[in-house]
Amino acid sequence: MTDNLSNVLARLGETRVLPVVELDTSEAALPLARALMAGGLPVAEITFRSEAAAASIGILRERFPEMLVGAGTVLDIEQVELAYGAGSQFAVTPGFNPAVVQACVETGLPILPGINNPTGVEQAMGFGLDAVKFFPAEASGGVRFLKALSGPYPSMRFVPTGGIAPDNLGSYLALPNVLACGGSWMVSPALVRASGFDEIARLAGEAVALAARNA
User: Fold this and answer.
1) Cα separation, 124 vs 131, whole angstroms
2) Is 67 helix (H, G, I), strand (E, B) or coil?
3) How buried is 7 (Cβ within 10 angstroms: 0-12 exposed, 13-18 middle, 19+ buried)?
4) Domain locations in the chain?
5) Which pLDDT tens digit goes with each residue over 139-160?
6) d(C-alpha 10, C-alpha 167), whole Å
7) What is each CA distance from 126 to 30, 119, 167, in whole angstroms?
């Protein structure tokens, strides 16, 4: 595990919540970041679900160097290069693509590859990784499945994402093998499009408070 990845994991372990953000335009990046930070959540995964992702990452890295900013929904090597060039501090993938993982390892971009089965865990271990995204969490067995994985893979840590909301966040964060939880409920595309940044700040603060109860 590289020092960069170690630092990223340490910071995720402090925030315990990873906002998964989809931005239609890069103009929304700054007010979104201000809202998250006002809520006490200085971290964001900017997904490559729109063409504004790389520009948004670059803006946030320049204007808010204290934030932890990563690239999400990274599907191919071109997006790895875009994320790295924009200054992304980590990458997250929905599934386990060995070519994408290898590209991240070679460029020094910390990666949380997506898995939802033991084979994926062992693939990640083969690349020297000890943390992965668990996706889609609720549809793949949720808390019970993560508890089952803790037996054969005691050193692997997970960032479950998919179907996580305030009502089940605590049950995930209570697991010893869960590093942090990813979610979009506090940064929904509808809220961002409506410029509901005060509400985003409120929801971010609520998420921080929920996470603190399971510190």
Assistant:
1) 8
2) coil
3) middle
4) 3-212
5) 999 999 999 999 999 999 999 9
6) 25
7) 38, 11, 35
66 included as an active-site residue: no
Phi, psi of 185 (to 5 degrees): -60, -30
Residue 41: strand pairing partners: none
pLDDT digits (tens, 9 = 90+) for 169-201: 999 999 999 999 999 999 999 999 999 999 999
Q: What angle do CA 11, 66, 186 make, to 5 degrees?
A: 70
Asked if 45 is an active-site residue, the reply is: yes
Identified catalytic residue from 133, 138, 147, 206? 133
Which residue, among 193, 182, 185, 147, has the nearest Cα to 166 in the 3D structure?
185
Instruction: Tell me the CATH number for domain 3-212.
Output: 3.20.20.70
Strand partners, 161: 182
> Is the pLDDT score of 3 beyond 90?
no
- C-alpha dist (Å) from residue 163 to 35, 89, 173: 23, 25, 14
Q: Which of 14, 22, 27, 45 is catalytic?
A: 45
Return d(Cα 45, Cα 192) in angstroms, integer: 14
Q: Which amino acid is at 7?
A: N
Q: Distances from the Cα of 81 to the Cαs of 84, 91, 175, 195, in angstroms?
A: 5, 11, 34, 30
Indicate the length of the chain as a whole number: 215
Q: Are 123 and 103 in contact (CB under 8 A)?
A: no
